[in-house]
């Protein structure tokens, strides 16, 4: 039996999620209490979930608590297991729960390295969002102001390659450059590649480690993970997937992620907005034109859930939920502290 199984307000919340397409207001504490409620909702309602939080540290803390409660309910444990067929996926995008990055450097102040690291993490998160059947995305608000391609365009540049496959090597390298990879003497960071003597080193943002492709002519003889510090090969894999690499926020020509969410998320995705006023403030600081005068009215979801610690009397009582939970940060396994 779940932690909230006999809670009447939780049952109302669950029923509204199933029946409503309009925004639902939830008044409750955040942190671990919120994580326990939403983990229970995921167990009971077969939908994708997007949770937008005001800042990155809240996102990191929430992911830790949320994964704990998902494990408690018997659903998602702590991410994927790459095995020997493919390289190990980076932690933020390795399981059902996907942590998006925060854009913490103002436009015009970002250097190439900072922008590249951010874009690498973002592209890995977007790839995971597009490929999981029922993803759970945890997104810091500032990330929604970053420009990106829509889902179809993004995936059209992804390519799976396998050991033993023949490639037009010259064209392959040209394609890497076209999707943001940059040539360096020694591969150490995401989005870099080097080529020398039939060896192509490549740091694909999706993976924890870079890969080394050994060619004989245009044939891929082997694919290995390698340590970027020692440059020594670690383990052989059968295949890997090429995805978009590092591009700075200014170099992307797409729409802000907020406006592209409909292409990335399934129509029935449950969207939870933690402290909507703070989210609106953050988005306006990043891009004053993103929301215009509409404010939180344009925050999407089917339904959208506005989760706050202060009751909003503008919502009809029929769409207001009051969960008597405290804000517990950090959670230390004390279930009694949640209610």
Written account of the structure:
- This protein has 339 residues and is an alpha/beta fold.
- It has two domains: 8-82 and 91-154 and 248-338, P-loop containing nucleotide triphosphate hydrolases (Rossmann fold, 3-Layer(aba) Sandwich), CATH 3.40.50.300; 159-242, Penicillin-binding protein 1b fold (2-Layer Sandwich).
- It has nine helices and 17 strands.
- The chain has helices at residues 8-19, 32-44, 56-72, 112-131, 151-156, 169-178, 257-264, 276-286, 288-291, and strands at residues 24-27, 49-53, 97-99, 136-140, 147-148, 159-162, 182-183, 192-196, 199-202, 211-216, 219-226, 233-237, 239-242, 255-256, 270-274, 304-308, 320-322.
- The strands form four sheets. It has a seven-stranded parallel β-sheet with strand order 3-4-2-15-16-1-17, with helices on both faces. A six-stranded mixed β-sheet has the order 7-8-9-10-11-12, with no helix packed on it. A two-stranded antiparallel ribbon has the order 5-14.
- The two termini are 16 Å apart.
- The model is unreliable at 72-83 (pLDDT under 50).
Kindly summarize this structure in a few lines:
The protein has 339 residues and is of the alpha/beta class. It has helices at residues 8-19, 32-44, 56-72, 112-131, 151-156, 169-178, 257-264, 276-286, 288-291, and strands spanning 24-27, 49-53, 97-99, 136-140, 147-148, 159-162, 182-183, 192-196, 199-202, 211-216, 219-226, 233-237, 239-242, 255-256, 270-274, 304-308, 320-322.
């Amino acid at each position: 039996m779940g932690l909230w199984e006999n809670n009447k307000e939780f049952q109302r919340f669950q029923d509204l999620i199933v029946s409503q397409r309009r925004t639902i207001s939830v008044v409750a504490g955040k942190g671990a209490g919120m994580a326990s409620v939403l983990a229970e909702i995921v167990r009971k309602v077969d939908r994708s979930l997007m949770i937008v939080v005001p800042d990155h540290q809240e996102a990191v803390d929430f992911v830790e608590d949320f994964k704990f409660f998902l494990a408690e309910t018997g659903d998602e444990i702590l991410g994927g297991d790459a095995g020997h067929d493919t390289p190990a996926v980076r932690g933020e995008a390795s399981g059902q729960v996907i942590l998006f990055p925060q854009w913490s450097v103002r436009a015009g102040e970002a250097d190439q390295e900072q922008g590249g690291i951010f874009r690498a993490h973002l592209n890995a998160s977007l790839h995971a969002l597009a490929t999981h059947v029922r993803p759970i995305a945890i997104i810091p608000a500032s990330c929604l102001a970053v420009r990106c391609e829509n889902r179809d365009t993004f995936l059209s540049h992804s390519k799976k390659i396998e050991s033993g496959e023949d490639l037009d090597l010259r064209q392959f390298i040209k394609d890497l450059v076209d999707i943001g990879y940059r040539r360096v003497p020694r591969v150490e960071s995401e989005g870099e590649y080097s080529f020398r003597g039939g060896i192509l080193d490549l740091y694909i943002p999706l993976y924890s480690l870079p890969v080394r492709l050994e060619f004989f002519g245009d044939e891929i003889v082997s694919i290995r993970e390698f340590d970027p510090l020692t440059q020594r090969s670690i383990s052989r894999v059968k295949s890997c997937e090429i995805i978009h690499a590092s591009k700075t926020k200014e170099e992307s020509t797409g729409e802000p992620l907020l406006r592209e969410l409909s292409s990335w998320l399934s129509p029935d995705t449950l969207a939870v907005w933690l402290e909507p006023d703070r989210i609106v403030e953050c988005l306006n600081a990043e891009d004053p034109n993103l929301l215009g005068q509409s404010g939180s009215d344009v925050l999407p979801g089917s339904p959208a859930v506005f989760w706050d610690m202060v009751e909003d009397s503008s919502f009809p009582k029929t769409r207001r939920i009051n969960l008597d939970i405290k804000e517990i940060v950090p959670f230390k396994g004390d279930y009694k502290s949640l209610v």
